[in-house]
Amino acid sequence: MADQGNRADLADNADPARLDVLDEATKGKLTAQYAALDEALGNEANPNNKGKYE
Predict the structure, then answer these.
(1) Exposed/middle/buried for residue 15 (C-beta within 10 Å: 0-12, 13-18, 19+)
(2) For residues 31 and 53, is the Cβ–Cβ distance under 8 A?
(3) Which residue has the higher pLDDT, 29 or 42?
(4) Cα dihedral 12/15/20/25 (nearest 10)
(5) Are 30 and 19 a contacting pair, CB within 8 Å?
(6) Using an 8 Å Cβ cutoff, are 10 and 41 in contact?
(7) pTM of the shown model
(8) What is the SS3 assignment for 23?
(9) Which candidate, 44, 50, 51, places its Cα nearest to that of 7?
(10) H-type helices in 2-51, by residue range?
(11) Which SS3 state, helix, strand or coil, does residue 11 take?
């Protein structure tokens, strides 16, 4: 159950529309953090996430 909440939070936070309003340094930092969290949650196996954090 907690993983579902974490995944929902990650999806919301990593929304490109939200990231696009940030300065490049902050956007890059958060994108890296979200990619690491995505991997930790096992979402790298989800084909919908391919290239999402590049």
Answers:
(1) exposed
(2) yes
(3) 29
(4) 70
(5) yes
(6) yes
(7) 0.69
(8) coil
(9) 44
(10) 2-13, 16-19, 24-40
(11) helix
